[in-house]
Amino acid sequence: MLNLQSLIKLESSLMIRSLHYLKAMGYDFLDEIKDENIYNLSFDNLRKTASTCSLCQFSKQRKHILMQKTQKNARLFVLTSFGQKSENESGILLNSKQGERLKTLIYENLGLNEENFYFSYLIKCFSSLKVDDFSLQSCLPFSLNEINLIKPKFILCLGYYPFKALGFDDFNSLRGEILSYKNSLIMASFDMDFLEKNPSYQDEFKKDLLKIKGFI
């Protein structure tokens, strides 16, 4: 039997989900929370600012900023959490075993080459798969500004942290659901690290990708 606190939490979760569904269907709501910490910069200046950032401890491990080198007009924006050591060494995004696997899955299921989607990391410096609240808050404005500049039709969040950072609390229950985020649609699915450790979930990931196909 659920206690009063559990019932309140469940009701709140259902209400938030209902609101996201309504927004995805085209309804607008007043008094929407604004992002106050977005840098008002061009893409080149944003990348330069990120590459010289020293706000958190991960900047000490940075050899190359984990961010696209040029702005793209892309309908799909893929956001995940952590870069790989090989990407930090080379400065080339998706230059890793996991990166190659992600590119293959996106191409096989969505028909998109790397040039056709925008890819970004929530943590812009190499962090050895580690994260803390301060580094998340320090890096988040860079990702928010990227989204504002790219203006994607669809945002695919891979893993818990990107989905949470953009304001969604329940990854497990909302994973695979298409919701509304500002002027875009958004969906969360598994990240490559999770799929590497849990290959039985790969078919579920492919199903999630196929849900996107009709929107991009």
* Strand arrangement, major sheet: 2-1-3-5-4
Over all CA atoms, what is the radius of gyration?
A: 17 Å
Given the C-alpha coordinates, what overall shape results? Answer: globular
CA distance, first residue to last residue = 43 Å
The major beta sheet can be summarized as: 5 strands, mixed
What structural category do the secondary elements indicate? alpha/beta
Mean pLDDT across all residues, rounded?
Answer: 85
Q: Topology as H/E string?
A: HHEHHEHEHHEEHH
Number of strands: 5
Q: Low-confidence runs (pLDDT<50, min 5 residues)?
A: 1-19, 25-36
Q: Determine the number of helices (DSSP H or I, runs of at least 4 residues).
A: 9
What share of residues is helical? 40-55%
* Beta fraction: 5-15%
